[in-house]
Structures are given as structure tokens and as C-alpha cells.
Amino acid sequence: MKSAALAAALLFALPAAAQQRLTCGTVEALEITSLTRARVSAFLRTVLPGAPAGSKNFFEGKIELANTTLPAGPRVTALVQHGQGQHEVVLLVDVDLAKVPAELLGRLHAAALDFTLEGNLRSSSSSDAPPVPVCAAGVLKIGTNEIRASGPVGQDFARFGGARLGGVSLTETQGEATVVLYNPFTFPLDVRDLVYEIRAGDRKVASGERHGLRIHPGRENPIDLPVTATNADLAVALAGAVASGGRADGRLVASITIKVGKDQTMTIPLDLPGTIQVGR
């Protein structure tokens, strides 16, 4: 089982009396339902050996990602589908991004997210019913259906400020573009590489790279992107705009490689709409 090792480690960390009565379940999947500048909301899907009666419970305890407690409590709604000997329990997790601890970044793994939880499930229909102790663990691989989003997420964190092309020579046109990145955390994010293309329709107008950037916490970070386009490419991609010295619709297609963990990186793709100004 993919999470057997984590479940065993969590179980052995419990006192001996707790080990006799508690069997750990598994964390199966994470589905992100909303991501804004302030909060991330998600369904954390688990399979647990025990749960109180009723289709709605409350989880009270700690949820950890990469051995770091998430600011998701102290009480989390849990939707329960009862089965024979095991119960599918979906936790409705809501995390305040400004309260995420700085140590999480250094503990993340680039290929997977390891979750553990430990606490109690309480019935929402009967205050007299005793709580059911629970624990679970799971390693969810990034890039698989174990981690998914119910719709587009992350638009609030990046925007394309447009590109301006005006320095014309015999063979090429130079200019600059701007991307604005928002860091919701209270700690900086270090970017190893930012590789980008400016496109008009399906044609590449210009491309470039930047390295060794820092995204400062709690604010928008405008980043200048130098661009150089050959006149031949520019004439084909932006013929109308070149002739009129005006604007054209464009896109910034980029990948941002952020440093995480110990000597690891995580790459985030961007595809942002904007405008391309040609001429003055």
C-alpha cells in the first residue's frame, strides 16, 4: 500500500495504550476546489477504519503536510460514506495562506505531497456520542490524479503586464515585458529560473530567460522581462500592428522554477493574456 510506511510511522509514534485501540487509515487524494490570494480550499479524501454514525462529522486534531501542521483547524467538516470495515471520509480543508509556516517550504518534496492527520471524529447529530480517534497517512504524487483541481486555479497570483517593442535595428526589435507575481505567504520565494515566450496567436514573437529572482512576501512583485524579436518573426506574427504602430493581443507563456526542500525545485507553468505594443 502506498502509504503503509507513513501509517506505520504515525502509529508507532503513539503511546502504547493508543496503539492497542487505534488503527491508522490512508490519505487517498487531494482535490483543490478554490485558490485565492488569501485561502486555499480543498477536499482531502481519506479511508478510515472508524467513524461516528451519520453522513456528517467534525474532525478535531492536526493535519500535517511534510511534517508541518497546516493552519486548517481546529474543527474541520468531514463528510462520511460508511462501508463494511472502512469508511470514506472527505475532509473540507480550508487553509489561510498568510498563516502557513515558513518551514513548510524547506520540507516540501518536488515530486509528492505527504499528508498525515491525527485527532478525533465527532458526530454532528449527537453531542453525547463519544468521539472516534483516527489517524491516517498518505503520499500523493504530483502530476497524477491523486492531486487535482476541480477547475482553473491560481489566476490571482500572476498577470501579464504586456510587452512593448520599440528599439528597431536592421535585423531585430528590442523591448521589454512585465509579469506581476503575487506571493501570499509571509516568507519569500526564491526563483531559480524564469523561462518565457511572448506569443501572438500560435506564433512566437520573442523569448528570454531570467535567473536568481526573489518573490517578496505579502505583495505583488513586478518583474521586467527583456525581449528581442527578429524583424522577420515580428513581421509575420504582428503584421497589422507593425504597419500601424499599434497594439495586438498576445500571451506570456512561461515556466517558473521555485526552490523547495533541500536542493529541490518545483516548476509552475504560466499562460497569461495581455497586449503587445509595437512602435512608440
Radius of gyration: 24 Å
The number of helical runs is 5
- Shape category: elongated
Count of the domains: 2
The overall pLDDT average reads 87
Largest sheet: 7 strands, mixed, barrel
- In N-to-C order, the SSE pattern is HHEEEEEEHEEEEEEEEHHEE
- Distance from N terminus to C terminus (CA atoms, Å) equals 62 Å
Give unreliable regions as ranges. Answer: 16-20
> Per CATH, what is the topology of the largest domain?
Immunoglobulin-like
Structural class: mainly beta
Number of E-type strands = 16
The CATH top-level class label of the largest domain:
Mainly Beta
Q: Which strands sit side by side, in order, in the main sheet?
A: 1-2-6-5-3-7-8
Amount of helix:
10-25%
CATH architecture group name of the largest domain:
Sandwich
How much of the polypeptide forms β-strand, as a percent range? over 45%
Describe this entry's structure for a reader.
This protein has 280 residues and is mainly beta. It folds into two domains: 4-149, Immunoglobulin-like, CATH 2.60.40; 155-278, Immunoglobulin-like. Helices cover 12% and strands 59% of the residues. It is built from five helices and 16 strands. It has helices at residues 4-12, 16-21, 103-107, 231-237, 239-244; strands at residues 25-35, 39-48, 56-65, 68-69, 75-82, 87-96, 112-123, 132-141, 147-149, 158-168, 172-183, 189-200, 203-215, 219-230, 247-260, 264-278. The strands form two sheets. Strands 1-2-6-5-3-7-8 form a seven-stranded mixed β-barrel. A hairpin with a 2-residue loop joins strand 12 and strand 13. It is elongated.
